[in-house]
Amino acid sequence: MTNKNFNSNNGRESRKNYRQSLPKPLWRRILKWTFLVIFLFLVAGVGLFAFYAKDAPNISRADLESGGSSGLYNTNGKFVMSLGTEKRLYVKDSEDLQLLKDAIVSVEDKRFYKDKLGIDPIRIVGSMLTNAKSKSISAGGSTITQQLVKLTKFSTAASQRTLRRKAQEAWLAMRVQREYSHDEILEFYINKVYMNYGNTGIGTAANFYYGKKIGDLDLAQTAMLAGMPNRPTVYNPYTYPQYAKYRRDIVLKAMLKNKKISQEQYDEASKESIKKGLKPHNQRKQSNLRKINDPYVKEAIAEVRAKGFDPFRDNLKITINMDQKAQKKLYQLANNGQVPFTNDKMQIGASVVDPSNGHVVAILGGRHLPSSVQLGLDRAVQTTRSTGSSIKPVLDYGPAIEYLNWSTAKMLDDSKYVYPGTNVQLYDWDNKYDGMMTMRHALEQSRNVPAVKTLREVGIPRARKFAGKMDIDIPKDSGLSVAIGANASSLQMAGAFSAFATMGIYHKPQFVSKIETPDGLTRNYDSEGIRVMSKATAYIITDMLKGVIKHGSGRNAQINGLYHAGKTGSVKYSEQDLARYPGYAATPKDSWFVGYTPRYAIGVWTGYDNLKDGTISGIGQQSAQLFYKNMMTYLMRNKENVDWQKPDSVIRARIAKNSNPPEVSSTGEWQLFVRGHSPVGIVDDSSDYDEDDEKTNTNNSSSTSNTQERNSVHHENGSTTQNNKNEKKDKDLKDKPQTGNTGKDNSSDSSQNNDANNSNSENNPHHEQKPNKPGGESNNSGNDENHH
């Protein structure tokens, strides 16, 4: 019996061992490993969630109740203004909000009142699948609670759609859900959302759009407002009524599906006109300060948006580079009569930039700005106006020094010139030709023919490249006439001239230096700048542009004792314009002045918005220069007056007038050469250099003041000079002598035929011209020759 049992047990053991030795079915192994991988993923996911969530920012009731619009601050941290233009009407939870709450829950989060977590796993899984297909984080699975958290503590920028941010958002949503009731959360949400036109909160929007309280709105109006937060600009009933109706009907359909309204109510509301009950859309008058700041605020908003943020929804702390006093002074100069204009319709656009960092200090969008328009036309940044001759340092002479190593003594021929391939003759502003002259004289007196011939020598491709480094865009198909006029804004011109002010370092003009998001992240946008030209090029251009103010076309911009440089520009009317308004023939269409010190660069455009508004005549022909003079005087009143120091890469010598090749003369004019490219026998002679002695041998010798006066006028302890930290760091090879490029760029000829295709428009549309004599209109008749 015992043996029998033993044999039986032994057999069972053998069968068990045999079964265990058999390979397991494939499906069991797959299932086992699948569960194991899922488990590991869950553990890793929980760990990663905990890792991200531990750094989540704090969130309080005050945060949840606060408005969602961003604040603007100056570089000293002082509050400037809020971007919300309407005073927020905070609405407390009550029966009057029930219809609105039903609409929001139906369209945004129909399981909201059943949610105990603050997050919706079903929606999250759905969004994860969508995002996996699109290989991005584009679809949202956010509950209303999560949306509230996002509006309170996070940015809507695409760069913020990260796993870290999503984890922190979910963690804070769970905290909010534990600490507040569903109705409280909805109250926070209703008062937090952005509703366009500077309105924060649906209570504010109800008053703005309908002039009513939320409880007084009908079903269709309530649905319209409930749908707007999704895309408030697109679903704007004033500008896009068709999209607003589309969104409103989606909300109504969701309410019907969620059994919050009947079919009869849906049918009636969906047929209602989207414009029923809307108030007439008259933008509210701004405060005087907001009117002054409006052009700057507009550009700052555009810059913030370009960086991926929504300044109206993201509750940002935005540090702008505006100097409030300078901004106010620009506005006053344009409107208080201190600077004369031809008439009240004459307009202006102006920009002030700090060359050392690219900060836009102030901008002027125009004169007589209406109080009822916000974020309106900003003439400071319009790029549809020709610069006239103010482009010459950037596009003609700067590249000639940089690539061809020209000296200020380079002889140029101001004689009859016809654009190649055309019968279009180029004239100077006085309809005369002055023969051979130095590059210095040609730039100071703003002669057109030498400028065009210089561009031809350099070649348009190389000149385009040089200007492009400073964000002046010259079209590829430009003809040689671009040498005396290119389309650019006052801001672009101030930015480009800033590179001369800093000895060749360019900082892109910027309105915003820092953005801080509610979750504590900070983004700084200041940069060290880039070298766009050699120190020699920048210094030589600056030295010649000093002469423009002292002896040349910019004498109305003179400021006694101040070291500064600048260039005039004026634009003639086209033949088509003159056919309509023949009386405009002897006056400029646009008038410019761009000038700078080591501390500030200012670009000024003057002209008219429309041809019919008038022309720049009389004293108005001096407005750009006088505006610059007044503004620069104001800016530099307490600043140290510092001159540019000649770099070792530049040689200074007295050269006999119009000698070719240059010859040294003890009674000659001071001229500058790139070291390594001066004629034999010319050595650096700067021991007895006196700027005011530069023109002793010319009849343009209008000395402004002596050196002692210059050094005693402006003082500021501890101020920086143009020898900033960028120069100390930069050992750019461009400071070494240029070699090779000494002749004409062959590619320049390919551009000349474009002049033939544009012969009508190139009939001197950009040429510097002789102005009307003011006659008895002013006491400036003796300065006619100064307008070039």
UniProtKB/TrEMBL annotation:
Q: Where is the composition biased (Acidic residues)?
A: 685-694
Location of the region described as Disordered in the Swiss-Prot/TrEMBL record: 679-788
Task: Provide the transmembrane region boundaries.
Answer: 33-53
- Glycosyl transferase family domain mapped to chain residues: 78-255
Start-end of Basic and acidic residues biased regions: 725-737
- Residue stretches making up the Penicillin-binding protein transpeptidase domain: 350-629
Reaction catalysed? Preferential cleavage: (Ac)2-L-Lys-D-Ala-|-D-Ala. Also transpeptidation of peptidyl-alanyl moieties that are N-acyl substituents of D-alanine; [GlcNAc-(1->4)-Mur2Ac(oyl-L-Ala-gamma-D-Glu-L-Lys-D-Ala-D-Ala)](n)-di-trans,octa-cis-undecaprenyl diphosphate + beta-D-GlcNAc-(1->4)-Mur2Ac(oyl-L-Ala-gamma-D-Glu-L-Lys-D-Ala-D-Ala)-di-trans,octa-cis-undecaprenyl diphosphate = [GlcNAc-(1->4)-Mur2Ac(oyl-L-Ala-gamma-D-Glu-L-Lys-D-Ala-D-Ala)](n+1)-di-trans,octa-cis-undecaprenyl diphosphate + di-trans,octa-cis-undecaprenyl diphosphate + H(+)
So which residues are the signal peptide here?
A: none
Pfam assignment, any one: Transpeptidase
Q: Where is the composition biased (Low complexity)?
A: 697-707, 748-763, 775-788
Q: Does the keyword Transferase apply?
A: yes
Which key words are in the record? Carboxypeptidase, Glycosyltransferase, Hydrolase, Membrane, Multifunctional enzyme, Protease, Transferase, Transmembrane, Transmembrane helix
Q: What is this protein called?
A: Penicillin-binding protein
Annotated source species: Lactobacillus melliventris
